Amino acid sequence: MEIFIGVAGLIIAWLTFQKTFYSKPDEERNNLLGTFLTTQKLHLEVQSILQKYIDENNGAEHFIYPDITFQHLLNMYKQGFEKDLSDKVYQDLKNNQIYTKSNIATFQKLIDKQHSDLLMFRNQLLFLTPPTKN
């Protein structure tokens, strides 16, 4: 009886090990892809708000931060989007089967941080008013 319990415990431990370290990270990848698409959409919304401000207020040369104009910031956001959130990056995340659970968890932390930062910035932009003329 003790041998049976020992063998059963060994099998359970082996199955747990296999599931933990060698299973495909499908659920984690799907969560990452969902967050990626949401962040991608939010990033485009921020770009749209910046572009709308520029268009409606002739604000390309208005300063949003010291030494940073709206146009410069919009250009930086566009470049960042192409580098980090483009459809090419999405397809790589979706199709690359070499990524481990650890890789995906790292990507998830990065995209979560970016999403949070974009959300805060978007909310700040919604209350933006153009400078008054003296």
Outline of the structure:
This protein is mainly α and 134 residues long. The protein has helices spanning 2-22, 26-57, 70-84, 87-95, 101-126; strands at 63-65, 68-69. It has one domain.
Descriptive account of the structure:
- The protein has 134 residues and is mainly alpha-helical.
- The protein has one domain (25-126).
- 77% of the residues lie in helices and 4% in strands.
- The chain has a two-stranded antiparallel ribbon with strand order 1-2.
- It is rod-shaped.
- The mean pLDDT is 89.
Task: Pick out its properties.
two-stranded antiparallel sheet; 77% helix; 134 residues
What's the domain count?
Answer: 1
Share of helix, binned: over 70%
Low-confidence stretches: none
Please give the number of β-strands: 2
Radius of gyration: 23 Å
Spatial gap, N to C terminus: 92 Å
The number of helical elements comes to 5
Shape: rod-shaped
Q: Beta-strand level of the residues, as a percent range?
A: under 5%
Class based on secondary structure composition and strand pairing: mainly alpha
Instruction: Characterize the largest beta sheet: strand count, sense, and whether it forms a barrel.
Output: 2 strands, antiparallel
Order of helices and strands: HHEEHHH
Question: Strand order across the biggest sheet?
Answer: 1-2
Mean pLDDT across all amino acids: 89
